[in-house]
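Input C-alpha cells:
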C-alpha cells in the first residue's frame, strides 16, 4: 500500500514538472528606446514661454576702469539672484498681509439666472394636479366631465420657467485659535526671507570682491610673465652669443630654451586664467557678454586687520544672518505646533446669509399658468452664531504638532552649529589675515632678492665667471619668487575680504604695509642690464 502511495506521488511530481516545462514562458515586452532630445523638444517647441527680461549692458568705459567698490555696487544692483531673493522677501510680506486679513469678515455673492425646464410623466390621470378625477363623477351625477379643466386629467406635464437665485453671505470668525499663531508664523517667515535677501547681498558682494582680486592676480601674472619671458629671451641671446664666441656650448643654449619654454607656458596659463576670471566677474555683474574688464588698480595689499580676535568673533555673532535664519525656522515650527493643536479648540463664527429667489414666469405654460401670474419673489435670511471644534481625529493633529516640535528642536541645533561654524570661519580668516601680512612681506623681499641675484649672476656670467647653470638657477628662483609673491598677496587680500564678510567689520588702510612691500614686480625686468651685457660681449 505504501508502495502504491509512493508511486502515485512520484507520478504526480513528474507530471507537474512536465507541465511546467511545457508551459509557455512569459513574454517580456522590449522597452522602446528613449527618444532623443530633439524629439522631446519638438513636442513643446511652439508653446510660448516668454523671455528673460533684458538687462542693459554696463558702459565699456566703466568696465575698462573698474574699481572694487564700483564692482560690488553693480553686482548688488544688477545680479538676478539678489533680485530674486528680494522678490521672495516682498512675497513673504504679502503672505503676512494675507494672514492679517483673517481678522476681517468675508463677503461673498452668488448669482444664478436661467431657464429651467420640467417634464413630468405619470401612470394615472390627475397625478399632476394631485386630485383623483374619479371623485368628480359623484358631483356630476354621471354626466360628462368634459367641461372640467383638462389639466385635472393630464398624465404628463411640460413646463419651463425663468428664475434668478441670489445668495449673499457675510461670515466673520470672531474667535479663531489658529489665527494668532499663524500671524506670528508669517512674521518669522518674513524674517527668514529678509535673512535670505541679506545673505545673498553679502555673499555676492564677497564673491565679487573675490573675483576682482583673482582678476588682479591673473593680470599681475601676465605682466610679470611677459617680463620673465623677455628676460629669458635676452639671456638666450646672450648664451647664443657666447656660444659663437666659443665660451659656451649647445647645452647652455638648450638650458636657456628650457627655461624660456617654461615661462612661456606659465604666461599662456595666466592669459587663460585671466579670461576665466573676467567671465566669472562678468557673470556676477550680470553682464556676461562683456569681454574687456580691467581693474583700475594693480594687485597690492588692501590694508590690514586692526580688530582683535575676540572683537571680531563678537561682531560676527551679531552680524551673521545664518544664525537668525535658523532661529526663525525654530520659531516657525513651534508656532506650527500651536496651529496643529488649535483644531481641538472651538472656532466661533458669525454666519449671515440672505437668499433671494426671483421667478419671472412660465413662458411655455398655458392657462391657468400664464406668465403674468407666474412671477414671484422669495426672501430668506439667517444670522446664526456657529461654534465648531474637532473632538477626535485619531491623534493626527497631536502627531503633527509633535513632528513640528521636533523640527523646531532640529532648527535650534542647526543654529548652534551655525554659531560654531561662524566662530571657526572667523578664526580661520583671522589667522590668514594676520599671518598673511608677514608672508606678503617675506615674499616681497624674496622677489627683490631673486631679481638682484639674477642681475648679478648675469653680469658675472657675461664677465666670464660662473656657468650657465647658475644663471638658469637664478631664473628659476626668480620665477618661483614672483609666483609665490602673487599668490601670497592674492591670498592675503582674499583673507581680508573673507574676514570682513564673516564679521561685518572692515579692514583698514595700512600705508606702512604698502611702503614696506613696495612694488617688487617692477624690478623683475632685466632689459637694460642684459642688453648692456650683450653689447659688451659682442664688442
Amino acid at each position: 500500500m505504501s508502495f502504491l502511495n509512493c508511486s502515485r506521488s512520484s507520478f504526480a511530481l513528474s507530471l507537474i514538472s512536465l507541465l511546467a516545462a511545457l508551459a509557455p514562458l512569459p513574454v517580456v515586452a522590449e522597452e522602446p528606446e528613449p527618444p532623443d532630445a530633439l524629439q522631446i523638444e519638438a513636442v513643446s517647441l511652439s508653446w510660448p514661454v516668454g523671455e528673460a527680461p533684458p538687462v542693459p549692458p554696463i558702459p565699456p568705459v566703466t568696465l575698462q576702469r573698474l574699481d572694487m567698490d564700483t564692482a560690488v555696487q553693480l553686482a548688488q544692483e544688477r545680479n538676478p539672484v539678489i533680485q530674486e531673493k528680494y522678490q521672495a522677501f516682498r512675497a513673504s510680506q504679502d503672505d503676512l498681509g494675507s494672514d492679517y486679513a483673517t481678522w476681517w469678515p468675508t463677503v461673498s455673492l452668488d448669482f444664478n439666472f436661467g431657464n429651467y425646464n420640467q417634464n413630468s410623466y405619470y401612470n394615472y390621470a390627475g397625478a399632476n394636479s394631485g386630485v383623483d378625477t374619479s371623485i368628480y363623477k359623484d358631483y356630476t351625477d354621471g354626466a360628462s366631465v368634459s367641461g372640467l379643466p383638462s389639466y385635472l386629467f393630464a398624465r404628463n406635464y411640460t413646463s419651463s420657467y425663468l428664475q434668478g437665485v441670489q445668495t449673499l453671505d457675510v461670515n466673520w470668525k470672531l474667535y479663531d485659535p489658529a489665527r494668532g499663531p499663524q500671524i506670528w508664523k508669517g512674521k518669522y517667515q518674513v524674517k527668514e526671507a529678509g535673512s535670505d535677501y541679506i545673505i545673498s547681498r553679502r555673499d555676492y558682494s564677497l564673491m565679487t570682491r573675490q573675483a576682482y582680486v583673482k582678476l588682479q592676480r591673473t593680470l599681475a601674472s601676465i605682466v610679470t610673465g611677459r617680463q620673465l619671458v623677455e628676460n629669458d629671451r635676452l639671456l638666450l641671446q646672450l648664451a647664443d652669443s657666447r656660444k659663437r664666441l666659443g665660451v659656451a656650448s649647445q647645452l647652455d643654449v638648450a638650458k636657456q630654451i628650457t627655461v624660456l619654454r617654461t615661462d612661456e607656458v606659465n604666461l599662456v596659463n595666466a592669459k587663460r586664467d585671466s579670461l576665466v576670471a573676467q567671465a566669472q566677474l562678468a557673470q556676477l555683474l550680470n553682464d556676461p557678454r562683456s569681454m574687456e574688464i580691467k581693474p583700475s588698480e594693480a594687485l597690492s595689499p588692501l590694508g590690514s586687520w586692526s580688530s582683535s580676535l575676540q572683537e571680531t568673533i563678537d561682531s560676527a555673532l551679531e552680524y551673521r544672518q545664518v544664525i537668525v535664519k535658523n532661529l526663525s525656522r525654530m520659531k516657525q515650527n513651534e508656532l506650527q505646533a500651536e496651529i496643529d493643536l488649535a483644531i481641538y479648540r472651538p472656532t466661533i463664527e458669525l454666519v449671515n446669509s440672505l437668499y433671494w429667489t426671483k421667478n419671472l414666469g412660465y413662458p411655455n405654460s398655458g392657462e391657468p399658468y400664464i406668465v403674468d401670474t407666474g412671477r414671484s419673489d422669495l426672501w430668506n435670511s439667517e444670522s446664526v452664531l456657529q461654534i465648531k471644534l474637532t473632538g477626535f481625529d485619531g491623534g493626527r493633529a497631536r502627531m503633527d504638532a509633535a513632528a513640528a516640535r521636533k523640527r523646531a528642536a532640529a532648527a535650534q541645533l542647526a543654529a548652534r552649529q551655525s554659531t560654531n561654524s561662524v566662530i571657526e570661519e572667523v578664526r580661520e580668516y583671522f589667522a590668514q589675515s594676520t599671518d598673511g601680512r608677514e608672508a606678503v612681506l617675506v615674499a616681497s623681499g624674496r622677489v627683490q632678492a631673486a631679481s638682484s641675484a639674477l642681475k648679478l649672476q648675469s653680469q658675472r656670467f657675461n664677465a666670464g665667471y660662473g656657468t650657465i647653470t647658475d644663471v638658469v638657477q637664478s631664473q628659476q628662483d626668480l620665477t618661483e619668487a614672483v609666483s609665490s609673491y602673487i599668490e601670497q598677496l592674492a591670498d592675503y587680500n582674499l583673507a581680508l575680504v573673507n574676514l570682513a564678510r564673516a564679521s561685518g567689520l572692515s579692514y583698514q588702510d595700512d600705508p606702512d604695509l604698502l611702503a614696506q612691500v613696495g612694488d617688487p614686480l617692477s624690478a623683475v625686468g632685466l632689459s637694460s642690464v642684459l642688453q648692456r651685457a650683450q653689447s659688451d660681449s659682442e664688442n
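Residues 77 and 209 are 15 Å apart (CA to CA). The radius of gyration is 45 Å.
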